[in-house]
Design a protein that fits this description.
Radius of gyration: 28 Å
Number of helices: 22
Bound molecules: adenosine-5'-triphosphate, magnesium ion, zinc ion
Distance between the termini: 75 Å
Shape: elongated
Largest sheet: 5 strands, parallel
Number of strands: 18
Length: about 500
Amino acid sequence: MMVARTHSVALLGMTGSMVEVEADIGNGLPTLMIIGLPDTALSDARDRVRAAATNCGCALPHSKITVNLSPAALPKHGSTFDLAIAMAILAAEGTISAESVAGVVHLGELSLDGRLRPMNGVLPAIAAAARAGYRSFMVPEGNRHEAELVPGVVIVPVVSLRDAAIYHAGAFEPVVYEAIQGHDAHDTREPHHELADVVGNPDAVLALVAAAAGGHHMFLLGPPGAGKTMLASRLPGLLPDLDTESALEVSSVRSLAGAGVPRTLAVRPPFESPHHTATAAALIGGGSRLIRPGAAARASHGVLFLDEAPEFAVSVLDALRQPLESGVISIHRANAVARFPGSFQLVLAANPCPCGQYGAAESKCTCSPNTRRRYLARLSGPLLDRIDIQVQVRRVTAVELRLGDTEPRLTTVEARRTVELARERMARRLEGTGWRLNSQVPGEWLRSGPERLPHSFTAVLDRALERGGITMRGYDRILRVAWTLADLDGADQPSPEHVGRALYLRKSMSA
Ligand SMILES: Nc1ncnc2c1ncn2[C@@H]1O[C@H](COP(=O)(O)OP(=O)(O)OP(=O)(O)O)[C@@H](O)[C@H]1O
Ligand SMILES: [Mg+2]
Ligand SMILES: [Zn+2]
């Protein structure tokens, strides 16, 4: 046997492509030549494979070895081809079974002593290969649990190059290596943020439930200590469990981010709250060689919370526009585009002014009207255009907090159930339209589509529009929220009262 083949996976963003790794052993001076790897990765891989093989007692043949990774044009970053390269060489030499090697996709970077290092992105790599029809995968022991999350595949976890060779041939004496551990499995239990802990502020609570039901982006405005952060952290708890496909996507992004993936598939929506000093790369993703997902991608299928939103750099906020429009994050590099999922629910929180006191009960705001305007203007335009729900959060008084309120408070479990029922309603109603959530429905369709409301129902909105109290965009957003309020109530369409409440939720905000 002089030529042997196996497969590995190249990742670009979340996109995995199959790579064929072919080894040829010919006559000539002993060299190891690798074709098809870019730049520096090439000599690094050569040195690692050679050292690892020697150090674990399955030294490479003293011949002219040529390894070809194809397709050549495919960008191949990272060091995850080591294992495939080593297996192809040993199979070409006849030391291990070429047939066995050909039937397995190999993923993993070698350390110099011959052990396999866990890698980022095992989950999306295997998911991609499984979609392409591959079934058997050899992965570093440290990635075992994550690999096993992909349904319908056979995972062979190995500790070292030697273990890998033994699996394919049994020609070596077993040596016991200690596995290099991956990231600790991350805890799937979300901290429980109970909705019923929120005292008062019934408008804000209703707005939160509506945001969860309709998938509406949300803006919370209020003075310090009003409970904006508290409310936002309760949103993920109100969202339904993820379906398997979305859950795999969420874990795949975590895997690529090197953030640790739970042992069992996490089905709760993620919550990410980057600090306002975050860079665009931290929010959107970036990095020079291996492009890593940022907070927005990690929040996909869940909630991205920007606390103190006006404090974020304008360029960072701008970077959110593209994912908000398309649900996809694209990161452009010289010769490639990395794509990550970006369908998160955005929650912004802000104080009404730099000192935070404007509009509070005994307001002691020290900001000039100009300063106030400029503060929130940082958020204006395309970003706010995407936000259906804007709500003013009031500071509850110490007495209210101490006594609680007399109204029974909605619990997280009750609210989630209501949200699930509302979502079923809207999914049924929107069947065949391609939209699933009210937040996805364009204003045009609401105003003149088959579900247009009678004029008498929207009279308050029409008047507000005429008076200039709301804009046309605002009109559409209020209609969307009115539909969600109706779905939450189990109504077939919004009543004038739903429209009024949607308008009220919005008007309770000065901006
Ligand atoms: N409505 C409320 N019910 C119960 N507790 C509340 C309420 N509002 C505020 N609190 C309490 O006050 C604390 C501060 O609230 P939180 O941090 O959410 O305010 P904030 O609006 O985000 O303020 P900041 O603008 O300073 O960030 C909360 O941890 C909570 O304990
Ligand atoms: Mg806060
Ligand atoms: Zn102020």
